[in-house]
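Co-fold these.
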Amino acid sequence: MNCKEFKDLAPALALRALDESERLGCENHLLSTAPHDGCHEIESQTRLMASRLAGVLPEHPLRRRVWQAIERRLEASGAAPAAVRRRRRHTGRPPATGSPA
Amino acid sequence: MVSMTSRHWAAAAEDDGAGEGDGALMDRIARREVGALRELYDRHARRAMAIAMRILRDKSAAEDVVQETFLDVWRRVAQFDVQRGDAAAWVITIARSRAIDRLRASGKAARVIEAASEMLIPASEPLPSEGTERRRDQVRIAAALGELPAEQRQTIELAYFDGLSQSEIAIRTGNPLGTVKARVKLAMTKLTRLLTPQEA
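Predicted complex below.
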């Protein structure tokens, strides 16, 4: 894949609308150390554009248990148990003892 | 142009009454502050949930995607590069990608191909609880989508909001694959032109 071919596919790459072989081709092209003709810039620009489209949707409320499940998994992984406990002390948020999400 | 866009969105986040910017939150997450992750979650989880729900049409599955998304943010924060987009864009990209992975793994995409896509334009009214800048942005994006020719808009909606690949869209719409590819490219080029702030 050359830079022109990549740039043709970049919008569909950003939308996750490429077939697997095309997507892999694009990703390999981006990883290539050969000189590029603005490929990374186009990739960033189209990815940002795509992420922005979600803004047209009304926000959707979440049940409290979603965050509680995140907190529980952080604790279980040992990622930051002290930080979780410290934050609970400061904010008074309930401990993550609800049923799994 | 990309950095200009990022600055604009970062400024928009501040206008939104968000207080501490997302960039500062990401720095704190990198220092393993769970409270910062919670703040990022409070800001962007509802939007992540919206896109996951739209793609998966299943509340529990969408909640799982949101959960995985923020655990991903925690695990991969060192990979976050503000030069490649702001934190909100990163969160949405992860959530959407995970929702599409789940959709394709479940084989539900085939069912979506058969179903009529719910047209999103004109966009529904923003919730009063959403920030002023977010409401403005929602109106801008809806207007930009509304400016696309109907067939391009439908193609973008099937790709972005239904998670279909170009090949699946070709099957769904009965159009040649080359036509679908051309519509994706034209639509995204036009949306970028319409929604990218121009330097004075």
